[in-house]
Amino acid sequence: MKKNSGTVFSLAEDNKVIPGCTVSELLSDAGGFYTSVFALGAGTDISPEIYGYPKIWYVLQGEMKMVLSEAGEVNLTEGSVAITPTGTPVGSRTENGAVYLEITLKEDTDMNSILKSSEVFALKDLVPYQDGKIVNMDLVNDPSMKFVVMSFTKGCALPEHAAPGEALIFALDGEGTIGYEGKEYLIKAGENFKFDKGGAHYVKADGNFKMALLLTLA
Fold first, then answer.
1. What value, to the nearest 5°, has the Cα angle with vertex 191 and ends 116 and 178?
2. Going by C-beta distance under 8 Å and a sequence separation of 6 or more, which residues neighbour residue 54?
3. 25, 33, 108, 189: most buried by Cβ count inside 10 Å?
4. Which residues of the chain have pLDDT under 50?
5. Does the domain at residues 10-122 carry the CATH identifier 2.60.120.10?
6. pLDDT at position 18, please?
């Protein structure tokens, strides 16, 4: 992944919109799963195209629309996630500017049945809080990549362990503490953190905390 480990950062802030332009940055192509960030300037669009595989769109900042030639448009707001349909033209556009993450899947990717094509979800709302528990939901589970949403309540923690691949954290709600290679980092909703393969780390919550994890294993 094209990000430095051991520091708290924001993908949205690192990919600011440029007026009148659409900009993309490839973060990873591990295992054939292409993960990119798109920044769309106000009034710009990406023309509809047909794909034989789905994509996950996660809006990091602003508002945008999924443009479906036959079914109109689907509104996406900050923090929401949607799955693009296959075999039909799909594009994106924004009136006031938006930054979003795109994870390109494969035709046979094992994806959680809760994710429906063209339906919009708030990523942080996919898992509930349970007192004294960590709740985990795999959205994508493939030998080369996993995309997971997790919730922690006060006092819950993942013990220190080594990452089997590169991992990118998305803080979704509240704040948590990440221990990485002997140092601790506070991460809040809207921020990101990267682990290197083999990097020793832990996660703990002093209050309610939700996060998503993108793990590349290839």
1. 105
2. 83, 84, 85, 86, 105, 109, 111, 117
3. 33
4. none
5. yes
6. 97
